[in-house]
Amino acid sequence: MILARLVPPRRRAAVVGAVAAALMLVTACTQGPAPVTGGETPLSPLDGEPRTTTTATALTTLLVTPREPAVPVVGSSDQVIVTYELGLQNTTPLTLTPTEVQVLAPSGAVVQTLDQAATAAALAQPAARGGVHQLTNAQSATLYVTLRFPTRSVVPEHLDNRVTVSGEGLPGGTATTGPVAVPVSSLVAPVLGPPLEPGSRYIAADSCCDSPRHRRALLPIENRVWLAQRFAVDWEQLDSNNRTVAGDDAANPADYTIYGKKVISAADGVVVHVMTGLPDERPGALPSDTSPAKADGNSVIVNIGMGLYALYAHMQDGSITVREGQRITRGQQLGLVGNSGNTSAPHLHFHVMDGPSPMASEGVPYVIDFFTTTGQITSTEAFDRLENTTQPLPVRPLPTDGRHSDQMPLDRDLVTFP
Ligand SMILES: [Zn+2]
């Protein structure tokens, strides 16, 4: 996990704690308990974590739990994007309404304030795309925070988060949590090449950060929750008439503009997993019988170094031209875009993760060294409504259209790869 690499792992703290506990037992047997001297924060003999010496004055109304450190990345908007998640849990028998989230720099300067509506929009429960307005008794939800900065140098080392809730029965009617810190990682997003053959009007569908489909795809696996798809992109393509379906049959995979385009390796690496043998699904709806093991369809996972892995998913059966253990180079063909696995329209799902499992890992941002943008699909709603039709999709120009280098294509960008 990124967290484990960047802050002292809790496991290590536990080991230190165990050693400390052993020493304390020896001390206790021979000399009696060590005196409390004051001034120092004692460490627990159970877990090695600090224990404050102050007396509790109030019960916590809302537990706020940071997940992973945020890894900054420069997006095609020319901004540095810092996106992270906080777990919120109502610890009371009351119904609480989150009314404000304040994000502060270590200096105390306010970086961003989410009002009640923005907080509800940023708050979701597993597998839900919509906002959460209230947390009932013991209910939990995840808050997805995305901040944008003009340059990397002004991004704080960590971000303090304070959440205010109101509720009938709360003393005073409201409560605000203490600041909960999310570390900002020093990890530098890897520089990759394109994952598709040269071409124009590729759509970076459901890319970072406001579209919920990938960004909020928390998955519980092996007794832990993961967010492997945090920075995933579903690459589709418009034809010259702005249609994702270039032919006349939206139920036929081969009629989609993107279908059959060459998937190429975005980086040098070693193939660690290949899945084949799955048919193209009928576009228009997700298949009803997909298991997690087959969700990525015909797919390739590549170890790209630095502890990172790239996933290329949903390719055509029989098109994959690499095998497990094979060393491959950037630009090498891996297969052809198809519609296999858990998919409702032909596309290439691409993401980078901190482990070899496409689901039981954490998503990591990356940048592409060179691409051009020529506008953006106007909204996720329009994309979803028209993706499986022969009608044109609405496109608008962006002020940042043009050449981009070492940036991440953002949600609904129209991208040309050289
Ligand atoms: Zn996807």
* Residue share in β-strands: 25-35%
Major sheet: size, sense and barrel closure? Answer: 11 strands, antiparallel
Helix content: 10-25%
How far the N terminus sits from the C terminus, by CA atoms, comes to 33 Å
**Oligomeric grouping of the chains:** single chain
Secondary structural class:
mainly beta
Computed over alpha carbons, the radius of gyration is 24 Å
CATH domain class of the largest domain: Mainly Beta
How many domains? The number is 2
Report the principal-axis shape: globular
Number of strands: 27
Q: Would you identify the CATH architecture of the largest domain?
A: Distorted Sandwich
CATH superfamily of the largest domain: Glucose Permease (Domain IIA)
The number of helical runs is 5
Ligands (ions, cofactors included): zinc ion
Give the overall average pLDDT.
90
Sum this structure up briefly:
With 418 residues, this protein is mainly beta. 11% of the residues lie in helices and 33% in strands. It is globular, with a radius of gyration of 24 Å.
Please characterize this protein's 3D structure.
By secondary structure, the chain is mostly beta strands. Strands 12, 15, 17, 18, 19, 20, 22, 24, 25, 26 and 27 form an eleven-stranded antiparallel β-sheet that branches. Strands 1, 2, 3, 6 and 7 form a five-stranded antiparallel β-sheet that branches. Strands 4, 5, 8, 9 and 10 form a five-stranded antiparallel β-sheet that branches. The chain folds into two domains: 122 residues, Immunoglobulin-like (Sandwich); 227 residues, Glucose Permease (Domain IIA) (Distorted Sandwich), CATH 2.70.70.10. The two termini are 33 Å apart. The longest helix has 22 residues. The radius of gyration is 24 Å and the shape is globular. It is built from five helices and 27 strands. Zinc ion binds next to loops.
